[in-house]
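#struct-pred
JK: can someone run the complex with EPU? inputs below
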Amino acid sequence: MSYGLRIREQVDLRDLNTMAIAAKARQFADIETTDQLVQALDTAQEQQLKTLLLGGGSNLVFAGDFDGLVLHMALRGRCWEQVQGDSAVLVLAAGENWHDAVLYAARSGYRGLENLALIPGTAGAAPVQNIGAYGVELCDTLESVTALDCGSREVVTLSAEQCQFAYRDSFFKRNPGRYIILEIRLRLSRSAPLKLDYRDLQDYLGDVDAAKLTPLEVAEAVMAVRRRKLPDPETLPNTGSFFKNPVIDKAQFERLQERFPDLVFYPIADGVKLAAAWLIDHAGWKGFRNARVGIHNRQALVLVNHSQGDGADVLALAEDVRVSVRKEFGVELEVEPGIVGAS
Ligand code: EPU
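RT: done, structure tokens with the ligand placed:
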């Protein structure tokens, strides 16, 4: 029984990753049903091929071709559940576009996702790195995730607690290949307070009366702020922030702040989180470019592909940035997107 699964050979992935790297998949299948997914995993196992789950391709870098089977997530569908009073659960299939879902929720009058507008990628990828922006993270609203256990081939439900969310991190990110996310559930509310305290958002909104704002207006403000600073992958290929904001301990922070009084930082429970963009900018990289790749001229945390850069170009520049930030500030930067296809 084929369940309609169609496997293609030697597929170019350039249009399927927002860094626009021209890597090839040895085999490739669109996954439109859970049955197709199970069959694809069985096929890969029989042929001893590794697999790669690909969503919007907005948080990965192809270091080379992928010598295995790419599973392109195309499960679609969204609905509301448990609509009670002001609260409801938005259910999104893994292949739904994230930004479209944010606008859909905001237009329906539900609050909780509006600060996450314009983040590229799919709903199913959102929990993996616990997407976050403008003072909000996915884990603030995520109630549960339905996933395929790749070992047992059973469909399981994981609570938010089981997902072990942290800053740009989750169980899924730490255990790649263990589960494939099929569906996510988000608990939203018509009356939750809007989160407007992030500096850039406050500056944009000025002294507008927060009580009169709708979630759609906040989503539109977030979109305007993002468009000012972050390059659109459609016109300048990129994967968003290329590094995590590093966390250092208090003692190291105090020494650093003495040398660099205008260092941008956020105190957190177990230390101090530094703005990696500030470090990269002050190490002189903002706007740097070579023939193929560079550092964005309005957000130093974003690596961009100017012209046919490949994975090696991107990773070589990332390494130069890391070495330079280590030398200048003694701080280690951790790459945020996944690196795939490295030999
Ligand atoms: N800054 C510089 N130079 C720059 C850019 C920023 O010095 O070129 C300084 C600014 O002074 C600013 C600070 O760095 O105060 C922080 O910058 P920004 O507010 O742009 O946020 P970020 O920490 O660089 C994070 C997320 C973004 C998210 C924004 C807004 C990470 C790794 N990145 O960036 O997420 O959109 O906050 O909430 O946490 C992504 O993950 O792909 C992403 C874009």
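RT: quick notes.
Residues 133-134, 198, 200, 229-230, 240-241, 244-245, 264, 275, 277-278, 281, 286, 299-301, 336 surround EPU (CB under 6 Å).
The mean pLDDT is 96.
JK: thanks, will look after standup
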